[in-house]
Amino acid sequence: MEIDQLDPARIPGHVAIIMDGNGRWANRQGLKRNAGHEAGEQALFDTVEGALELGIRDLTVYAFSTENWKRPPDEVRFLMNFNESLLVRRADELDDREVRVRFLGRRNRPVPRRLVRLIEDTEALTRDNRRMTLRIAFNYGGRTELLDATRQLVEEAAAGRRRKVDEDAIAARLYDAEMPDVDLLIRTSGEQRLSNYLLWQAAYAELVFTELLWPDFDRVALRRAVYDYQSRDRRFGGAVDRPRPSASTAPTLPPPGAP
Ligand code: IPE
Ligand code: IPE
Ligand code: MG
């Protein structure tokens, strides 16, 4: 799959990915789950390169959900340390590539303070980059995000600072008010569910599911997903009347019950 097989006029602006299947990838090779998380790093960075090549403006990846705290303490600890080390090792590279990094999620306990500080440093380092925005959903849950936005609105209303609540008021109180709606949402590993990801922003996203496990995903797999996306008819609830010219000459079905 080459880039020139894609229509440059219909590249999705915002691609979101549920990076799933690390544990299965590792276990299939007789390794512990954490080895799968490690292997996922190069998949992420190849995908970032692929997104830059395609001119995708926004890429949002799911790294740790509000439900992932249920995992064994070992794995949770590994994921906290791993994400910390990833930021230490890779922040400059993202900055060199003119990628702006932002985090979506609650930044309070139990996220380690050191990780929160690194998150803030990375956001500050890359804040003026404009080529692409990479958002990392970490300690993120779509319901929590909507709950946090709702609480803010209720507080504003109680303080007499707000009378009207509309969609724009909610959207402006999500974790990143500048984040556009998702055009294409990809989930790896064959699971076909949202797992609490971007519930508001993905309302009209095109969904692409692939059997590839996350560590096997790469820029070519991203191109395939974009190719699939370009074959979709996005209607947003609307309708266009397009009778086919041949319809009037097509043979009509016999009435029900006819011999
Ligand atoms: C996704 O891979 C990474 C995280 C959720 C952190 P998993 O760890 O969910 O891998 P599987 O789905 O168990 O194979
Ligand atoms: C979703 O994957 C979260 C991330 C990829 C970070 P999970 O593996 O946690 O989702 P479920 O449990 O299969 O729904
Ligand atoms: Mg999983």
SSE blueprint:
Elements: E1 14-18, H1 22-28, H2 33-54, E2 58-65, H3 73-96, E3 99-104, H4 113-126, E4 132-140, H5 142-158, H6 167-171, E5 184-187, E6 206-209, H7 219-230
Parallel strand pairs: 1-2, 1-5, 2-4, 3-4, 5-6
Helix pairs in contact: 1-2, 2-3, 2-7, 3-4
The chain binds 3-methylbut-3-enyl trihydrogen diphosphate (2 copies) and magnesium ion.
GO molecular function: ditrans,polycis-undecaprenyl-diphosphate synthase [(2E,6E)-farnesyl-diphosphate specific] activity; magnesium ion binding; manganese ion binding; Z-farnesyl diphosphate synthase activity
Binding site for Mg(2+): 20, 206
Family: Belongs to the UPP synthase family.
Tags for this entry?
binds 3-methylbut-3-enyl trihydrogen diphosphate; 259 residues; 7 helices; alpha/beta; binds magnesium ion; 6-stranded parallel sheet
